[in-house]
Write a structure and sequence with these properties.
The complex is a heterodimer of chains A (about 230) and B (about 240). By secondary structure, chain A is mainly alpha-helical. Chain A has 10 helices and 2 strands; from the N terminus they run H-H-E-H-H-H-E-H-H-H-H-H. Chain A is globular. In chain B, helix 2 (about 80-90) crosses helix 3 (about 95-110). Classes of the chains: A mainly alpha (about 230), B alpha/beta (about 240). The interface of A and B includes residues 4, 10, 67, 69 and 81 of A. Chain B: Keywords: ATP-binding, Nucleotide-binding, Transport.
Chain lengths: ~230, ~240
């Protein structure tokens, strides 16, 4: 499974398909940090929110790099559908972690965030919080990107429709006062959490919500992929 | 392994591509899958390989190591021949040393030595098909599935395919070969599976069918070799001098 994960990541990089989402990530981060310095925690909350569609798109591109017949060959070689499916999701997660690393480092390089008055310890805590909130965006982004990939949707048009609809609904249904916030991953709620600095209980609930949503979406993805090789 | 009342359709509510398919393939057995274009041969092979899941019924007893050679090798990938085969060997669970031996062995045998560092999209159709053949054989397959394996291959490799099939069968592997060009006359003694109208008709290998095997023996040992073959019940049809010897 690790070998197949590596093979898919190499194909993603060598075909140059990794460049477009990377440029998109840099573009949205430039817009975010171009207007002056912000508190690190709050900035990371907004960063995770705006990177969500980019991470989902990156996942779709990575999963679509492999020709359909090669994906089937990989399933036969790996010995089970589960291993082949998991290897694709792992590759998408690793690529997403690369994008997140850039998102965490960039604001410090361009002085887009204010250093913590408490010193280095405060800055490290802010980066750790930033990593956590980006992970809460990465898991559902990988799930949404998977549901939009060609193997599931069977056409480029359907894939784009799933991706755009999922990203828009995640924001619209996540707005404060939404009657059904549980229908979408807690991206907006996480951004509000980092801005307000709510307590540990909120952080725990957001984490549970993100895991449950991602788990459900990944279960649907896995079920569909078992019959859609 | 066996197929028990297998049905398959690609979409819920769609028409059935395969219906009530029941068949068995024992260890060491070879079966040729016949049928017109679009009859469902490739679908049946992908079902048996584990690529597709039956909508109803089940495929049971599939060996752990399956080698599948698709009708068209997907050459639109950014790997070189060597890197691709090493990666596929790793996916099959081979460690670096074993992968190196397997890859080198099949590159040598299939005449791919000059293409090691060539990227897959730059290969001709026949050479790409050899890569497809090599990836299926990196580990000794308990089930080898060849979908139109003769397409685009040069004469030398066309001759090699039956030899590989017989080797896999001799090692206890099951082999399925699809063919719509009559090339499977090179596989006498194989069972005939005919796909038509969504169903499968199985005709077992003819027990009394005879094949001609050309064997080169040392001229000094010729009388003894002929005598031994006759003692074993074989008919010696003709003795001739080897061309080029």
């Amino acid at each position: 499974m690790i070998a197949l994960t590596g093979m898919r990541l190499r194909a993603f990089v060598r075909t140059g398909r990794s460049v477009a989402p990377l440029i998109a990530a840099l573009a949205v981060l430039s817009v975010l940090y171009g207007g002056g310095r912000a508190e690190a925690g709050e900035a990371y909350g907004a960063s995770a929110l705006i990177l969500f569609p980019v991470l989902a798109w990156q996942t779709k591109i990575l999963l679509d790099v492999e020709p359909d017949v090669q994906r089937r060959l990989a399933r036969v070689a790996a010995g089970s559908a589960g291993r082949e499916i998991t290897a694709g999701l792992l590759a998408a997660a690793v690529a997403g972690l690369g994008t997140i690393a850039i998102a965490l480092a960039l604001p410090w390089l361009v002085q887009g965030v204010k250093p913590d008055p408490g010193g280095l310890g405060g800055d490290v805590a802010a980066v750790a919080l930033g990593f956590g909130v980006h992970l809460l965006a990465l898991l559902p982004a990988v799930a949404l990107g998977g549901l939009a990939c060609r193997a599931v949707t069977r056409s480029a048009g359907n894939g784009v429709a799933v991706l755009v609809t999922g990203a828009v609904l995640a924001i619209v249904l996540g707005l404060q006062g939404s009657p059904v916030p549980w229908l979408v991953p807690p991206l907006m709620a996480t951004a509000r959490f980092t801005a307000s600095g709510s307590g540990a209980a909120t952080a725990l609930w957001l984490t549970v919500h993100a895991f449950l949503w991602s788990g459900a979406a990944l279960a649907v993805y896995s079920r569909l992929r078992r019959t859609r090789a | 392994m066996h197929l028990d009342d297998v049905w398959l359709r690609y979409r819920r509510g769609g028409s059935w591509v395969l219906r009530q398919v029941t068949a068995e393939l024992s260890a060491g057995e070879i079966a040729v899958v016949l049928g017109r274009n679009g009859a469902g041969k490739s679908t049946l092979l992908q079902l048996i390989a584990g690529v597709l899941r039956p909508s109803r019924g089940r495929v049971a007893g599939r060996p752990a190591a399956v080698g599948w050679v698709p009708e068209r090798f997907p050459a639109d990938q950014p790997h070189t021949v060597s890197a691709y085969l090493h990666a596929m060997a790793a996916v099959r669970g081979l460690r670096a040393a074993a992968a190196g031996r397997a890859v080198d062995g099949w590159i040598e045998r299939l005449g791919l030595g000059g293409f090691r560092d060539v990227k897959l999209p730059e290969l001709s159709k026949g050479t790409a098909q050899k890569v497809g053949l090599a990836q299926a054989l990196l580990v000794s397959p308990g089930l080898l599935i060849l979908d139109e394996p003769w397409e685009g291959l040069d004469a030398a490799t066309r001759e090699l395919v039956p030899a590989i099939v017989l080797e896999v069968a001799a090692a206890g592997g099951r082999v399925l070969v699809s063919d719509h060009r009559g090339e499977t006359v090179r596989l006498p003694g194989a069972a005939r599976w005919t796909v038509a109208d969504g169903g499968l008709a199985v005709a077992p290998a003819e027990a009394d069918q005879h094949c001609v095997v050309e064997v080169a023996v040392s001229a000094a040992d010729l009388p003894g070799a002929v005598a031994r073959l006759r003692e074993q019940g074989h008919r010696v049809l003709r003795v001739r001098e080897e061309v080029g010897s």
